[in-house]
UniProtKB/TrEMBL annotation:
Keywords: Signal. The lineage of its organism: Bacteria, Bacillati, Actinomycetota, Actinomycetes, Micrococcales. This is META domain-containing protein. Residues 60-116 form the DUF306 domain. Residues 1-26 form the signal peptide.
Length: 154
């Protein structure tokens, strides 16, 4: 095995370990992030009267499990699990007013021909009806997904 291949395999192993640790730690949380992003409260992102926050607990978006197609699942515990169609990503989400924020996102970095990896740049999202629109850290919209049947990541 050449040095570059060994380094790539080592990097993939580290990234998968980080993803697994993130999922495990998110599952250990005693409660989900509250509407203002602080840990605690009743739920991750239920509608808070007067806040305009979207109800996105236990929702799935995009083509779940379809190679080459992006998807995202948001759980009531504040876990975000998705795929850009090639790479898997996981981390946490929280609601800040009408915006969803994604934090501690870890992702694999595989190369897949003809796959647009826009979802890997996610930082925030907004929901309008059955569409979630993702933006990067500069606030630029990077893509949208349609809501689909909830597919629990566990």
């Amino acid at each position: 095995m050449n040095t570059q291949s060994t380094r790539s395999n080592r990097l993939i192993g580290v990234l998968l370990t980080v993803c697994a640790a993130t999922v495990a730690l998110a599952g250990c949380a005693s409660s989900a992030p509250s509407i203002d992003g602080a840990v605690g409260g009743d739920s991750a992102a239920t509608d808070n009267p007067g806040s305009g926050a979207p109800a996105v607990e236990n929702t799935s978006w995009g083509a779940q499990g379809v190679p080459g197609e992006p998807s995202m699942t948001l759980t009531a515990e504040g876990l975000a699990v998705g795929s850009d169609g090639c790479n898997t990503l996981s981390g946490q989400w929280r609601s800040k007013g009408t915006t969803l924020e994604f934090v501690e996102i870890a992702a694999t970095e595989a190369f897949c021909a003809d796959v647009d990896t826009w979802l890997l740049a996610l930082a925030t999202a907004t929901v309008a009806g059955d569409t979630i629109t993702f933006s990067d850290s500069s606030g630029t919209e990077i893509g949208s997904l349609q809501q689909t049947e909830f597919n629990s990541p566990r």
